[in-house]
């Protein structure tokens, strides 16, 4: 069978979600998937970016990551979205990309994909779950098959977010535990997408 195609599409201002996205890529590749890592376009005005040295630095550091296109969404058997929490919601940069997907949706080409999401927030109770649940609204509209990590691996009892991998950026860069959780989430997404792909090919 052909490998599962996984699109990891994310937004990150200061690198936290980018680090999670890289661990998601590692987990998906290790599970045998073909993976595209894609950032969404930065839409903030240059003066806003330049006012925050960490933001300006990350923009430079991530210059080599390709920007997401609709072709990436159409190609994917599984989609993982990553976003920082913004007032308890997804970042507008990611939402703007999602909002270009109308034509694919209209053609029914988003239905049946395996979908999952990951996030970071500044503080522990800053809205990680609400951000992940908000992204689920999109997946429902697509007719996606939402695959959360739940408590399906011992690592989930250590990092504790069944909705999707999440990190408190205010406590520093993602450490080994949360990166392990991200790899586990990716593996679970790939395993589910592979089973579906095999079943669809056989039917
Ligand atoms: C406009 C704005 C809104 C934010 N809203 C929240 C929030 O609601 N809760 C929270 O804990 N952190 C909030 N943050 C902090 C970000 O979530 C945090 O900086 C981000 O997760 C870091 O990820 P990144 O390094 O990938 O950009 C906000 C930051 C900005 C700039």
Automatic annotation (TrEMBL):
Record keywords, A-Z: Oxidoreductase
Q: Which domain of life is it from?
A: Bacteria
- GO terms, molecular function: FMN binding; NAD(P)H dehydrogenase (quinone) activity
Cellular-component GO terms for this entry? membrane
SUPFAM superfamilies, from UniProt?
Answer: Flavoproteins
Residue span, Flavodoxin-like domain: 6-203
Q: InterPro entries this protein is in? A: Flavodoxin/NO_synth, Flavoprotein-like_sf, Flavoprotein_WrbA-like, FMN_Rdtase-like_dom
PROSITE patterns, sorted: FLAVODOXIN_LIKE (PS50902)
> What Enzyme Commission number(s) appear in the record?
1.6.5.2
According to its UniProt record, what is one Pfam family this protein matches?
FMN_red
Give the family from UniProt. Answer: Belongs to the WrbA family.
Q: Which NCBIfam families match?
A: flav_wrbA, PRK03767.1
Protein name as annotated: NAD(P)H:quinone oxidoreductase
What's the encoding gene here? wrbA
């Amino acid at each position: 069978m052909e490998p599962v195609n996984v699109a990891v599409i994310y937004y990150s201002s200061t690198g936290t979600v980018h680090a999670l996205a890289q661990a998601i890529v590692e987990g998906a590749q290790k599970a045998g998937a073909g993976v595209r890592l894609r950032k969404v376009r930065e839409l903030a005005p240059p003066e806003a970016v330049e006012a925050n040295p960490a933001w300006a630095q990350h923009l430079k550091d991530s210059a080599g990551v390709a920007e997401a296109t609709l072709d990436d969404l159409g190609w994917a058997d599984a989609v993982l979205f990553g976003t920082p929490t913004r007032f308890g919601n997804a970042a507008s940069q990611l939402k703007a990309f999602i909002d270009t997907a109308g034509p694919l949706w209209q053609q029914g080409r988003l239905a049946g994909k395996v979908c999952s999401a990951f996030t970071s927030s500044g503080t522990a109770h800053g809205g990680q779950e609400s951000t992940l649940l908000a992204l689920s609204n999109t997946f429902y509209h697509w007719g996606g098959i939402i695959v959360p990590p739940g408590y399906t691996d011992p690592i989930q009892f250590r990092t504790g977010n069944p909705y999707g991998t999440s990190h408190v950026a205010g406590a520093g860069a993602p450490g080994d535990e949360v990166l392990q959780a991200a790899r586990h989430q990716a593996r679970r997404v790939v395993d589910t997408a592979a089973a579906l792909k095999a079943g669809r090919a056989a039917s």
